[in-house]
Amino acid sequence: MTAVAAQRTAALDQLPHHDRLPAEHFFDMHVELQPAQLFSTTLGTRLTFIVDGAVVDGPRLRGEMLPGGGDWLLVGSDGVGRVDIRATLRTHDDALIHFESRGVITIPADGLDRLAAAEVLPFDETYVRTTPKFETGDERYLWLNGIVALGYGVLSQNRVDYRIYHLL
């Protein structure tokens, strides 16, 4: 083993090895959406979802998502939806937090028809994963600016429900 390879191995030996990522439940978010604005572009199909409102409830964060934010979803020719969420959260104690999230969504081939029929797409039939980021200047919530979070979602007609985890 070369000296460089030995240094790399020694560096990695300092890191914990996890079969499961250490995380704690951060909050759940229940988002009500206006019907999608759907149109084709040269990059794929755009589905713009505007937030009517949302409840944020959990052990580390409580409040609401203010109306006017949204998800500017782009579905490519590969069938993968690329999430682009931006909104403002207001906490239960009146702090404002910029919320931004990217991620991917895949649904079954009949998923859009099932959503149109007001069916909830079960978690085990979809892949809805997001990476939320937070930005605030409120002293009470500055710690949010420096965390990594992961979200899992469940889709239904004009609604998405997320469970957000803080990666430790």
Automatic annotation (TrEMBL):
Protein name: UPF0311 protein CQY20_03935
Superkingdom of this protein's organism: Bacteria
InterPro entries registered for this protein in UniProt: UPF0311 (IPR020915)
Family according to the record: Belongs to the UPF0311 family.
Cited Pfam families: DUF3237
